[in-house]
Structure formats: structure tokens, C-alpha cells
């Protein structure tokens, strides 16, 4: 008899709980191998503090409801374990906790840094001769993990961004003759333009909105941008811009950090959209509006992608199945089998291969002028936003579950 | 035989096209009374320019699809006709166009200013002995028209804002222990706090998110706000703020216009959320994130309220029916018959009563501390967001219709 421990790591998504759902439901099918699934409260920080949630108190209905509840049901955190040499005590602490709670399966659900962490934990356990099966489960809206066809969480953000762009563009188009001429929509993506790229699914030609997409991969050029906006307004009557938060100027400086100061002279951080809006106003004198989706985009479970949801669930399920097969220090990934119809299956790769790699947008996914996506990119992203998977509603609001999150009795170590 | 003319006015909504759908479908049931429905291209500006759309070219399927397509399908505009005494030529021009196209029914779909305009047109037609039936059809996300139980367009924005607040709050709550402590969500509402109030449907107690709602009706007090944020973070671990774009300081100045200047010393317009975020950072030193929904909220047809959709359609239908009954210079309104279950019917009021009135939030709808809504407010708004009415999807995107918008042959006058 042994227990499992699951923890969520880094920024949460609309479907990370679907992975938790797949994992816990599958573990519950194997009660002789896995007695209990514990969860770290607020991720690995909770584990280090011996703050563990005992998920066995949750009803099957509550666990099933995780499939349609956004956010991180057990809490997540931003915390990166240092190397073993640098902070050995933290790794020892982890293994002591694991031993105290009979934890023999460790599932860590996160992005690139988290895969690195779980890999190190696996190595340390081996060093210490502590029998532990470690599985990293991918999750990141940034879509920057290597090997996997895509990252769970990305498809849903992509769908949200594409739909929001489509809807706002219809609004702007209706009013442009006498009102707003330029609409700027800021989306996430500090290092890679995947999320902004999803807006490109909306327009079929460069004359359709979104007219201009700004990628972190392409250095921003103010004059050229303003010229393109002006040309677009002249031709189409209005211009819709989708901007990655992480665009940088020619010197590599984030636009979001440039220039603005408040009444006290402090520089203002954040907000590429208002920066671009100021340029449009000052250089072109055009009426603008801007939106910043921020957390709305990564929590928008109400319009999650069905494909993303199914993949997220499947990865949680596969993680348990691989663990029970004795696979250690691996990460389940999504493999694309065919494009049309989109077919996929789950495979694994060793965690040693994953660590410290970032999957940026390939050059041939960005249009030559730097302001849009190519057909190859469109074909890659399109299937990931396919299908809807609406949560249940009551009185007009989604019925998201709030777990009991009862803590395991503390003080075992 | 006569024709009808329909025009959309002011900011568009997720459901204004549902009103157009109800109107055109009902007119098509009465071909002996109404031969054609023309539509002003970009609203009344198109009418003045003799730029009319002949909707008879649209298939029944295309007209039906208006029910689930956001934006203004014929184009809208921001343009307020002056008084008859001030600009008589514009009114004469309108009547000349009406006469040239045999228009005997004029339907104007907009907010308070538009109701004033259609009222003046009705009066001028009477003065000129031109037989014309004028109907104003309410529409505004601001929910500030008098007499009607609520305004078409509001319920859908309210639903979007409530759901977005719920979802983002789950995200923030998951991460607060090690990341963002304060999340600020800016929504529309320049003079009235109805839209921000809708976020209050999410939390059941002042301890639930959204913890603080900022209304234009309540003068903003920086110190008190910062204190409340700090207390909330201390108690709940995080703080979710929903701010109306139109909040003003004690001197009556819009917060969105205060203080920020760019590198050239120009003051920056727009964005209450980043302003509030700066306060949180400077006074409290707390990690923040902010979102500005802007057009996303009023075009979010993907999550429109079913009640709002049904009312919007019903008003378009009723407008034609009242017109054919010979009612002139009236506006159909929504009357609330019962609260639970929410039941309503359509009635009319004379346009003379509507003009130049604004329906702000009543005092007893705002909690005594000024940062939330009361139960009375909750009971008023709750039924307006009830029910979902999803558009059809293809390849992951809503299938919004693009009308032919074939123009009537110009040059009749």
C-alpha cells in the first residue's frame, strides 16, 4: 500500500483541474496500488510546509466537477526549487515528508521549470534509495514545452483569444465610420507569441481583422507599426491590433516598461495596449480603444476548448497509468497523429530531455511582414481550439466546484 | 404599400442584432403593409447620405442568424441630431429621403439620445404633414433608460462581467499565497454603475470576491480604498476589485484622466485599472494584476444572456406590431411582472416621456459602505443574466453571419 501526491505549479489555467480530475479518478480505480491521493496546498510550498490536502474526503461528484472548474483547485504557487547542490535541505525535507505520508508516487503538474523540479526530485530520491515514481504532467498556456504537440491550457486560451478578437472586431467594424478606428487587444505571452497567434485564426486574409498581430519574436518598430495602422484604416476603415504583452523595442526593452510615469515620477509597469494606443493617438490622431484580457483569458473555462479539455484529462489519467506501470522520471506528452481529422495519442518522454528547453514560435509560423501568421501556423493551432465543453449553469452562472480541501493531520514529521 | 426603415444607433451590443432579427422577421410576415425593410448604413448618418441597405436581399437564414451575431450588422454611429430649430435642414433631408423611398415606418434602435432623436423626427413629420409612424426601440448596455425594467444589451454584459469576475477570482485565489494579491477588473459604466454591480452577483458575502466594487455614483477615496484592500488581503489572502471606468475622485474628476503622463509629458487618457494598480503598488507594496474588458464585454455574444436575447428579439417584434396597429411616437418597454419566477411582458410608453432622463443606480442598491451591492440590487439583476443561448460553432469559432448589405440604388432624390 502506498499513497500518491499531486501538486499544481505555476500559473493556473482553465483546464488544469481537468488533469487533476483525470488523475484522481484514475487513481481511485486502483485502490490496492494507491490508497490515497494527497495534494499539496498551494503546490510545492504546501508540501514543504507539510500542508497536505487529503483528497479522499472529496465525493466522486466533486472530483468530476473539477473537469469544468477553472483555476487551481488545491492552490498553486510560483516557486522554483534550486539545484540539489545549492539547497539540499529542501530536497531532504521533501523526501522526509514523502516518507512520513507513505508517498511513493509524485505527480507534478506545471510548465518547464516544474518539469525540471520533478526531474531533480526523481534524481534525489534515487540517490537516497527512496523508492519513488516521479511523473511530470505538462501544463502551460504559453505552449512552450518541447516534444509535446501542444501544452494543456493553451488550446483554451487560444479559443478565448480568437473568439474575443472576432467579437470585438465586429463591434469595431460597426462603429468605425464615426467612432473608434483602432482597437488594440493585449494578450499574454512574455517570450513567445503563441497566444497572440491564435487571434490569427479569425481572419482569412491580411485584409480581415485582426489586421496586425504583434509577436515577442519580432522586434517592434514604432514607425513601421504606425504606418501599417494608418494604411489599414485607410483601406479597411478600421484596424484591429492584437499585441503580445512581451513585445520589445529594437533595443530589446519591453514596451510595457517604457516611458510612462505617474504624477510622482514613478515609472508605470504593465500595459502594452495603452502604450500602443498613445502612439496611435499622438502620431496618427486616430480614435482608439484598448482591452487587456489578463487573467480573464487563462481562467475562461466558460469557453474552453473541448480538445484541450480532453487532452488535459487524458494526461492526468495517463500519468497514473504510466506510474503504475513503473515508469519513472517521465512526462506524458501529446502526439499529433493526423491533421485532418485531428487525431492524437499520449506518449512519454524522459524528463531528462525536457528540462530547460523552450518551444518558441518557429520562424515559418510568422508571416514574412511580421504582422500575422502563416497557413502552416493556422493549421497547427486550428484543431486545438475545436469543440466546446460548457460547464453546467445555475441562475445564469457556471456551477464551479469548491472542494472541501480537508487537510491531512499535520505533525507526522 | 409602404416601406420601413430601421437604423442602429450608438454603441452596439451582443444582442442588438437580435432586435433587428425580430423586427425584420415580423415585418416579413406582413408583406401587404410593409413591402421592404431598409436599413441605414452606419445608422442615421447613412440615412442622411442616402446610403440605404435593402434587407430584402437577405435570405431568411441570414436574418435568423442575426439572433446570434454580435455587433451592428448594418453599422451604427455616434451622431446626435440637433434640435429642429437649430438644424431644420437635417430634418427636412430625412423626410425627403423617407418620401423618396416610400418610408412610412421609422424604427430607431438606441439609447437615450436616440429616443430623443426619433421623438423629434416624429414631431417634425407631423409638422410637415408627412404620414410617418416612428418607434424608438431601446438598447443600451448602460441600463440607464427610464420606465423599462432593464435595457436590452445590459443582461448580456452583466453576465459576461459576472462570469469573468468569478473565473478570474478562482485564478487569483489559487495563486495568491505566492503571487498576485490584488486583481483589478475595469468594466464599462461612465455615469452609472450597473455593469460593475453585476459582478456583485458572484459573491454571497462581503468576504467573497469581488471584495470591492467601485461605482461612479460613489466618490472615490484613495486612502479608504487602500485601507480596504489591505484589510481584505489580510483577511482573505487576496482582493478582487471591480471598477467602473467612470469613477471620480472627491473633486469630481475622472480617475482615468488623472496624473499619468508619457515620456513627452502628454497626459494619458483611459484606464482606471492601471491607476488603481499603481496605488496598490505604491501605497501597499502588493503584487497586482489588472484587466480592462472594454469592447470584449459588450460584444461577447458567445456568453450572452438568454433572457436578454429573448427580450431584445421581442422588442423588435413588438415594434413592428405596434407600428402596424398605428401607434406612433412610442417606445416599447419591458415590464417585470414577477420576480420568482422572473416574468415579463412588453408594453409601450410615449417617446415624449423618455427623452433626457437617465436611470442611475438607486441609492438602496449600493451597500452602505459603498463597495458592494445590496440584496435588492442582486434580486433586480439576477434574472437578467439567466439562461445561456450559445451561437453555433464551426472549427471552434462561432459562426457569426455577415450580411450581403446590398445597397438600395442611390439617386432617388
Describe the structure.
2 copies of one chain form a homodimer. Chain A is an alpha/beta fold and 413 residues long. Chain A folds into 2 domains: 2-139 and 301-355 and 389-398, Rossmann fold, CATH 3.40.50.450; 154-299, Rossmann fold, CATH 3.40.50.460. Helices cover 35% and strands 17% of the residues of chain A. Chain A has helices spanning 16-28, 44-48, 60-65, 88-100, 112-127, 154-175, 194-199, 222-236, 272-284, 295-299, 306-324, 351-354, 375-381; strands spanning 2-8, 34-40, 52-54, 103-110, 133-138, 182-187, 212-214, 239-244, 288-292, 330-338, 343-350, 393-394, 397-398. Chain A has a 5-stranded mixed β-sheet, with helices on both faces. In chain A, strands 7-8-6-9 form a 4-stranded parallel β-sheet, sandwiched between helices. A two-stranded antiparallel sheet of chain A has the order 10-11. The mean pLDDT of chain A is 95. At the A-B interface, helix 6, helix 9, strand 9, helix 10 and strand 13 of A face helix 6, helix 9, strand 9, helix 10 and strand 13 of B.
In short:
The structure is a homodimer of 413-residue chains. Chain A has 413 residues and is of the alpha/beta class. The first copy, chain A, is 35% helix and 17% strand.
Q: Helix proportion of residues of chain A, in percent?
A: 25-40%
Shape of chain A: elongated
Secondary structural class of chain A: alpha/beta
The top level CATH class name of the largest domain in chain A: Alpha Beta
Which two chains form the greatest contact, residue counts included?
A-B, 82 and 82 residues
How many beta strands in the DSSP annotation of chain A? 13
Number of domains of chain A: 2
Low-confidence stretches of chain A: none
Share of β-strand residues of chain A = 15-25%
**Sheet with most strands of chain A:** 5 strands, mixed
Give the strand line-up of the largest sheet of chain A.
Answer: 3-2-1-4-5
- The CATH topology name of the largest domain in chain A reads Rossmann fold
Note the gap between the termini of chain A.
20 Å
The helix/strand series of chain A, from N terminus to C terminus, equals EHEHEHHEHEHEHEHEHEHHEEHHEE
